[in-house]
Q: What sequence folds into this?
């Protein structure tokens, strides 16, 4: 083992006989190590929680919004059966379902609410969306053609004060032309179910009816608004969308979930990056505390440095000794932080409830937040990035004090010894 590493290891830990000054320097090194460990652990946990929230929101949105939507520029797709068959030929497509989507207004018990009406085929919709697991009451299969049943979002039902079994009035913007005036088209629907997707946008502004009833109400004959497609990999949606556009032998417009909710997911990604940079400052502060540790160590070891220089040690060797000392402090803190952060991120579903019981409070109350549990999704790529960046900061923090140590003149250091 090279002597620079041996001396660096010796300087990192204090011996009882080495005096109070050396023990104090070792105490400061321990504080720097703990600070770095806490910073790294906090960064890993926070990024894991943000990944968990991002994944949870993505799943909730895609439980209502399909991976890919195929429609036409006119807003009505006539040969939708051909489009469904063509889309099913793609190897990455799991299912496809037609839909009718239009604006409408619901009226019940003196309350009026505007919303989006979506006409679906229940048996096909269950393959491209997750409404079935979001149903609070009733089932999608209860939507049968000709019976004019409707499924409301939970917030929409609450605003209308409607319950399953109630009959509500749906007003369509397409009017009936009469000699007297243009009258709105109205139809009574019976509430057969309520869903709660966990996204206010859908829970407060979406109602589901059978596709045949929607086509009859909005006078679309056999036409639909488009076809919803579910893929085996949601992140392949942009690529598969372009391939479907070339595959389909029809004039169609293809959109995917990354476009329809681009601003939302971009905002989440920007927030994640900003949190990474902000929390990285904690790691930087802890890493640069090593500077003060090494400066004190260099000042305390001036006589040792001078003796090593007189024995033939080069300035580069002196610099290596203190780089080793600072790097050992940083690596020890980094490893402790990674171990603690990973352990906490993987067990946050156990730690947070325990803290809530101990403190007697809920961090995410169900009455306020749709996501009441703190999710965590650990990405090993994030752990690797944090480890590399933290190590580089630690290494940079050791350079200046080590360089100053290598510039120590033996005669000046030993003058008053």
A:
């Amino acid at each position: 083992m090279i002597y620079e590493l041996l001396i660096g290891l010796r300087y990192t830990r204090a011996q009882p006989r080495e005096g109070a000054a050396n023990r104090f320097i070792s105490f400061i090194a321990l504080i720097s190590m703990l600070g770095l460990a806490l910073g790294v652990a906090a960064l890993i946990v926070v990024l894991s929680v943000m990944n968990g929230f991002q994944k949870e929101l993505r799943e909730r949105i895609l439980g209502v919004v399909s991976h890919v939507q195929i429609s036409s520029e006119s807003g009505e797709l006539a040969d939708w059966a051909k489009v469904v068959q063509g889309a099913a030929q793609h190897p990455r497509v799991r299912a496809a379902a037609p839909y009718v989507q239009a604006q409408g207004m619901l009226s019940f018990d003196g309350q009026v609410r505007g919303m989006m009406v979506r006409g679906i085929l229940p048996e096909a919709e269950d393959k491209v969306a997750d409404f079935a697991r979001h149903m609070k009451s009733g089932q999608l299969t209860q939507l049968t053609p000709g019976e004019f049943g409707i499924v409301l979002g939970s917030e929409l039902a609450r605003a209308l004060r409607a319950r399953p079994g109630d009959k509500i009035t749906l007003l369509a913007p397409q009017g009936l032309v009469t000699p007297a005036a243009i009258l709105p088209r109205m139809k009574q629907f019976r509430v057969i179910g309520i869903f709660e997707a966990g996204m206010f946008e859908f829970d407060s502004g979406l109602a589901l009816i059978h596709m045949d009833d929607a086509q009859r109400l909005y006078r679309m004959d056999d036409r639909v608004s488009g076809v919803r497609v579910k893929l085996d990999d949601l992140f392949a949606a942009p690529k598969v969308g372009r391939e479907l556009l070339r595959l389909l032998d029809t004039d169609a417009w293809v959109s995917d979930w990354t476009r329809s909710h681009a601003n939302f997911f971009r905002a989440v990604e920007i927030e994640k990056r900003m949190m990474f940079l902000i929390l990285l400052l904690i790691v930087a502060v802890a890493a640069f505390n090593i500077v003060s540790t090494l400066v004190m160590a260099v000042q305390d070891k001036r006589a040792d440095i001078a003796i090593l220089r007189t024995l033939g040690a080069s300035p580069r060797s002196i610099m290596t000794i203190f780089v080793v000392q600072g790097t050992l402090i940083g690596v020890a803190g980094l490893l402790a932080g990674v171990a603690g952060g990973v352990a906490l991120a993987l067990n946050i579903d156990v730690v947070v409830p325990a803290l809530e019981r101990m403190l007697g409070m809920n961090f995410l109350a169900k009455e306020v937040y749709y996501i009441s549990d703190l999710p965590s999704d650990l990405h090993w790529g994030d752990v690797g990035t944090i480890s590399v960046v933290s190590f580089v900061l630690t290494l940079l923090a050791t350079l200046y004090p080590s360089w100053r140590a290598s510039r120590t003149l033996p005669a000046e250091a030993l003058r008053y010894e």
In short: Strands lie at 68-71, 93-108, 111-120, 135-137, 149-153, 167-177, 182-195, 206-210, 226-231, 253-256.
